[in-house]
Amino acid sequence: MARLIAAFLAGLLFGVGLGLSQMVNPAKVLAFLDVAGDWDPSLALVMLGAVLVTFVAFRPILRLPQPVFAGKFSLPTLKSLTARLILGSAIFGVGWGLVGFCPGPAIASLAYGLPETLVFLAALIAGSWLAKLVPAATVKQSA
Amino acid sequence: MANFTPYSAFIGGLLIGAAASLLLWLNGKIAGVSGILGQLLPPVKGDAAWRALFLAGLVLGVFFFRLFDPMDRGIAIAADLPVLIAGGLLVGFGTRLGGGCTSGHGVCGIARLSLRSIVATLTFLATAVVTVALVRHGLGG
Q1: What is the pLDDT of residues B126-139, one digit of tens each?
Q2: How is chain A split into domains, by residue range?
Q3: ipTM score assigned to the predicted complex
Q4: Any CB–CB contact under 8 A between B89 and chain A?
Q5: Which residues have a Cβ under 8 Å from the Cβ of B76 and sit 6 or more positions away?
Q6: How many CB pairs under 8 A join A and B?
């Protein structure tokens, strides 16, 4: 139960941050990405603020024997640069630049009740599902 | 730079970083939204509720913020239907193939000095900037 409350509160705080920083607003995001136009550097400060906190806080947290409410830390295990990583990130960036939504703000923007959010999220979920087909095909070829 | 909002951006960023730290400290999880959503589809018993609650928190967090924001600035989505669908497909496909998005790679991975996350973040920032440049200034703009 404590884990569920913790997850909810972390999400809540994350959401307030997305709202306050206006990261939830595609127009604001696109103005940040539009370096050749009337550039709005605000979102660089969002990134800076967020990474400042995680950079300082993660070190002592990860030195703890275990998280407060769980048996172990669940961290990514992959270390190597792969074609999937780079290709996937490149594709994500194109979609981000087209609309101005990345996954967190897209979900959080449901708070504004716009139909565009629903269309985008439906497509995002379909795209996530399509990505699951990629490893299966690769495994088949190499087997 | 007419719309530069350094204070709200920076403080909002601090809150996002605090939220990601909280999730790691309490539950041992990385606050990567594309992964939290992606592994909810389909839901796995015992691993689904925290994911759903985190995502619900995101929405309620913005909702809360709006209640106390003296100037509710709203949001503007300029993309039309085909672009929304194409963009959503690319974001969903790309983040799952690349194993993360702005939050997982950008906020959490960089803090861990993960080479994969640093490369991923530079890559999606670059293609996003190029995409906006082409759409706004390159294609008859």
Answers
A1: 999 999 999 999 86
A2: 2-142
A3: 0.95
A4: yes
A5: A25, A26, A27
A6: 497
